[in-house]
C-alpha cells in the first residue's frame, strides 16, 4: 500500500509552530507507545529548534510493556527524558508535570534571583493526529479544555490552556509529514488509526496487519481468532479464516471482508488481541537517516 497523505492544514500547522515557538519553554513530544519510531515526526528537531523536550509515550496501556521499557531506556540514553502515560485515565500524567517543572528549575531559579515575578511555564504539545494530545490536555486541566474525538485531525487551531498558576499549554493540530520514505511508517500509522480509514483499502490493511501479527505475536493472534495454524499463510487467507470463524458471512456463504476487516482493526486498536508494540529501538528503519539525532535537552538559563 502506497500511503501518502499531507492535508493542507498540516502545512499551515508547521508554519504556526514556527511562529509560536519563541513563546515556548518546553516541548512535550507525544508519541504512540505502540509505534514510537513511526509516530515521531522526523522533522521534530527542525520544527522545535532544539527546544528542551520531554517525550510522553501515550497509550502505554495498549503497548507491550517489555518493549515499552526498552523504548524508555533508548530515549533516556539519547538524552531525552521519557514518561509513559495513559491520557484517558491520567496514569503517568503527574510524573509528566513533575518532569516539566524539573526541566525548568534552572531558568525559574535565575528569574527568582533577579527578583522578577515568575510567569507560568509555557509548553507546547506536538504529535501526529490521533495520538491523544487533546485527551492529555483535558486530563491535566481537569475539564474539556480541548476538542477531542476518535478521528484523526480533530484539533485544527491553536489554543492556550491555563492548567494551573504554574503551567500553560499551547495545543496544536497534529502533524504528519509530507511523505513516508519507509513504507512501514505509513502502514503502522494506518494500523493505529493515525490516518483516516476512509482513504485506505481497509481489507488490504487488515490482511497486512494479520500477516505482521502472525510473525510478531502468533500466540495472541491464534488465541483471539482460534486459528489452527499460522504457518505459511498469507494475510488474505488469515482474513478469510477469521471471517468464517467470526460468522462474518453474506448470502451464499461468502466472507464479508469489509466487516471482518473493521473488526480486526478495532480489536487491535483496543488491545483485545493483546498488548502489542510493532517496533523496537534496535530495528533499523529505511528512514532512520532522516530521524533526528537526539541530544541532551536542558532548559537554558
From TrEMBL:
Alphabetical list of Pfam families matching this protein: MMR_HSR1
Keyword annotations: Cytoplasm, GTP-binding, Nucleotide-binding
Primary site of residence: cytoplasm
Cell location: Cytoplasm
Chain ranges of the CP-type G domain: 10-178
Biased composition (Basic and acidic residues): 281-301
InterPro entries, per the entry: G_CP_dom (IPR030378), GTP-bd (IPR006073), GTP-bd_ortho_bundle_sf (IPR023179), GTP-bd_ribosome_bgen (IPR019991), GTPase_MTG1 (IPR016478), P-loop_NTPase (IPR027417)
Entry's Gene Ontology cellular component terms: cytoplasm
Stated role: Required for a late step of 50S ribosomal subunit assembly. Has GTPase activity.
Protein name: Ribosome biogenesis GTPase A
Taxonomic classification: Bacteria, Bacillati, Bacillota, Clostridia, Eubacteriales
Amino acid at each position: 500500500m502506497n500511503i501518502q497523505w499531507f492535508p493542507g492544514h498540516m502545512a499551515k500547522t508547521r508554519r504556526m509552530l514556527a511562529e509560536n515557538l519563541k513563546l515556548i519553554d518546553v516541548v512535550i513530544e507525544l508519541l504512540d507507545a505502540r509505534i514510537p519510531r513511526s509516530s515521531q515526526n522526523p522533522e521534530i528537531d527542525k520544527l522545535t529548534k532544539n527546544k528542551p523536550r520531554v517525550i510522553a509515550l501515550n497509550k502505554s496501556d495498549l503497548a507491550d510493556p517489555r518493549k515499552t521499557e526498552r523504548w524508555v531506556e533508548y530515549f533516556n540514553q539519547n538524552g531525552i527524558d521519557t514518561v509513559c502515560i495513559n491520557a484517558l485515565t491520567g496514569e503517568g500524567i503527574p510524573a509528566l508535570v513533575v518532569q516539566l517543572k524539573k526541566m525548568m528549575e534552572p531558568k525559574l531559579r535565575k528569574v527568582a534571583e533577579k527578583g522578577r515575578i515568575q510567569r507560568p511555564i509555557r509548553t507546547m504539545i506536538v504529535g501526529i493526529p490521533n495520538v491523544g494530545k487533546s485527551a492529555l490536555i483535558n486530563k491535566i486541566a481537569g475539564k474539556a479544555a480541548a476538542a477531542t474525538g476518535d478521528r484523526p485531525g480533530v484539533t485544527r487551531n491553536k489554543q492556550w490552556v491555563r492548567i494551573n498558576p504554574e503551567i500553560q499549554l499551547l495545543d496544536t493540530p497534529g502533524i504528519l509529514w509530507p511523505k513516508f520514505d519507509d513504507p512501514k511508517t505509513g502502514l503502522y500509522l494506518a494500523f493505529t488509526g493515525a490516518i483516516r480509514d476512509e482513504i485506505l483499502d481497509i481489507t488490504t490493511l487488515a490482511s497486512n496487519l494479520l500477516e505482521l501479527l502472525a510473525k510478531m505475536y502468533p500466540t495472541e493472534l491464534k488465541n483471539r481468532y482460534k486459528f489452527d495454524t499460522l504457518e505459511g499463510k498469507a494475510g488474505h487467507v488469515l482474513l478469510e479464516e477469521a471471517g468464517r470463524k467470526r460468522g462474518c458471512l453474506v448470502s451464499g456463504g461468502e466472507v464479508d471482508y469489509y466487516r471482518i476487516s473493521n473488526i480486526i482493526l478495532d480489536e487491535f486498536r483496543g488491545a483485545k488481541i493483546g498488548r502489542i508494540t510493532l517496533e523496537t529501538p534496535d530495528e533499523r528503519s529505511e528512514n532512520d537517516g532522516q530521524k533526528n539525532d537526539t541530544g541532551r535537552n536542558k532548559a537554558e538559563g
